[in-house]
From TrEMBL:
<keyword id="KW-1133">Transmembrane helix</keyword>
<feature type="transmembrane region" description="Helical">
    <location>
        <begin position="293"/>
        <end position="317"/>
    </location>
</feature>
<feature type="transmembrane region" description="Helical">
    <location>
        <begin position="266"/>
        <end position="286"/>
    </location>
</feature>
<keyword id="KW-0812">Transmembrane</keyword>
<feature type="transmembrane region" description="Helical">
    <location>
        <begin position="343"/>
        <end position="362"/>
    </location>
</feature>
<feature type="region of interest" description="Disordered">
    <location>
        <begin position="1"/>
        <end position="27"/>
    </location>
</feature>
<protein>
    <recommendedName>
        <fullName>Integral membrane protein</fullName>
    </recommendedName>
</protein>
<feature type="transmembrane region" description="Helical">
    <location>
        <begin position="406"/>
        <end position="424"/>
    </location>
</feature>
<feature type="transmembrane region" description="Helical">
    <location>
        <begin position="66"/>
        <end position="85"/>
    </location>
</feature>
<feature type="transmembrane region" description="Helical">
    <location>
        <begin position="430"/>
        <end position="447"/>
    </location>
</feature>
<keyword id="KW-0472">Membrane</keyword>
Length: 455
């Protein structure tokens, strides 16, 4: 006969020590903290606004972070323009590198040829030349009818002179000597360009009639010498001619001059201010990784907007040219002036895009985890093969394992300093810097050899 087990005694059950009573003092303290945290989160509710005010605090942080990120994105656009304007106005080498290639541009050469040809022909009195021919024919005993025929040659003589002068100017402009003349002239007048864009006229670069123009008088003098050497003696009587080649023309040149002056003043500080504001915005964010992706995306969008604005500004600039100006030459001048600005836009945009991708790959998404895991396992397998082949990691591996996060931080800081202190980074500089950073992280992962625990 079997007997059933007696029912549990409630008093005996209450006398047994509970799970909490079996905890140590340290574990009990941690458990109390976790319970307090859970209670606070449950009391906050779905909206996150609890009696402690944590939800409101997070809302204020998020709002401030978003505003700072938007401001930093806008300032990044202005910073790129400011650095470009400051380099054009203040850096002579940068200015010469900007306008120097224009000497070999066919459209610019054609425009200068037409301008110089007109200036030279305006100094030659064709009627006086015809009268000299008539007098010379009369002195040589030519019949009066022949002298009269010479008087009817003013039209052909003018056409021939234009052809002669134009071909001479073309030879001068297309020669290597013109490249040197053009570069030297632009280098010598760069200080005058600084005065023109900051409101002080004078020198070979002038600001008048809403135009920024370069005096090409030295080219006229060169053509004069060429004509005399070719046997055209009347060219020796051509006086010193000062004629302008328009680099920029707009009825809003006064406002543009003011904007350039402001950008020139803040050009060195605006990038620093933009970076600091962006860093504060990321620091205030509740999710800093997402904030980093947000500011990188904002800067990338700002660079896209600036690129579109440069294209639109080119059409506006060509529409504001005075009549008689070569659109092709003016377009070439505009493209040369904004060449380095476009390069900076591409470089900053590439850096922002790569930063956003890097922040995404460091996150908890499935694609990011799979990417990191695959890279880590591949490098780990390579390390195991090398160690099996006799490569001793030893103290180096233990050091890298211990300070792995610090080493990664140093790599990123060094890359940031290199990019920030580079005078004029290009897209190639950004891409190669990122490649070097990835190689450095791969080497860090390869050298990461955790110490083996004893069996």
């Amino acid at each position: 006969m079997t007997s059933s087990a007696p029912p549990p005694d409630p008093d005996q059950h209450s006398a047994d020590p509970s799970g909490d009573q079996r905890l140590s003092a340290r574990e009990r303290s941690e458990l109390d903290k976790l319970r307090h945290r859970v209670s606070a989160l449950e009391g906050a509710g779905p909206s996150g606004a609890g009696p402690s005010g944590a939800g409101r605090h997070h809302w204020l942080r998020s709002t401030g972070s978003v505003l700072l990120i938007l401001l930093a994105s806008l300032l990044s656009l202005l910073a790129v323009v400011a650095v470009w304007a400051n380099s054009i106005v203040r850096d002579t080498d940068r200015y010469v590198a900007t306008v120097g290639p224009l000497a070999g541009n066919p459209d610019v050469q054609k425009a200068i040829t037409n301008r110089v040809t007109s200036a030279v022909l305006a100094q030659i009195d064709v009627e006086a030349l015809v009268k000299e021919l008539e007098q010379a024919a009369a002195q040589q005993g030519a019949p009066p009818k022949a002298a009269q025929l010479l008087g009817d040659l003013s039209g052909p003589i003018t056409s021939g002179l234009k052809s002669l002068v134009s071909s001479t100017v073309q030879r001068v402009v297309s020669s290597s000597a013109f490249d040197t003349l053009w570069v030297d002239a632009n280098r010598s007048v760069h200080s005058a360009l600084d005065k023109a864009l900051t409101g002080h006229d004078g020198g070979a670069v002038s600001l008048k009639n809403d135009q920024v123009a370069i005096d090409v008088g030295p080219i006229v003098a060169k053509v004069k010498d060429q004509l005399v050497s070719a046997g055209f003696k009347p060219a020796a009587r051509i006086p010193a001619v000062h004629t302008d080649f328009v680099v920029f023309a707009s009825k809003d040149i006064g406002e543009i001059k003011t904007y350039l002056r402001v950008l020139e003043i803040i050009g060195n500080w605006l990038p620093v201010i933009a970076v600091l504001i962006g860093a504060v915005g990321v620091y205030l964010a509740v999710n800093r990784r997402r904030a980093l992706i947000g500011i990188a995306s904002g800067v990338f969008a700002a660079m896209l907007l600036l690129g579109v604005a440069l294209t639109v500004a080119r059409a506006i600039y060509l529409d504001h040219l005075p009549s008689g100006t070569s659109d092709a030459a003016a377009g070439a001048v505009y493209d040369a002036l904004v060449k380095f600005l476009r390069a900076s836009v591409r470089a900053v945009g590439a850096l922002a895009l790569l930063t956003a991708v890097g922040a995404f790959l460091s996150g908890p998404s499935r694609a990011a985890v799979l990417t990191r895991t695959g890279c880590r396992r591949s490098i780990g397998a390579l390390r195991d093969v090398a160690v099996s082949a006799g490569l001793p990691l030893g103290a180096v591996g233990r050091f890298v394992h211990r300070y792995k996060r610090w080493i990664g931080g140093v790599i990123l800081v060094v890359a940031a300093v290199v990019l920030f202190t580079w005078s004029y980074p290009t897209t190639a500089v950004v891409v190669w810097t990122v490649v070097i950073v990835l190689v450095a992280f791969a080497i860090r992962e390869f050298l990461d050899a955790p110490p083996t625990e004893p069996a």
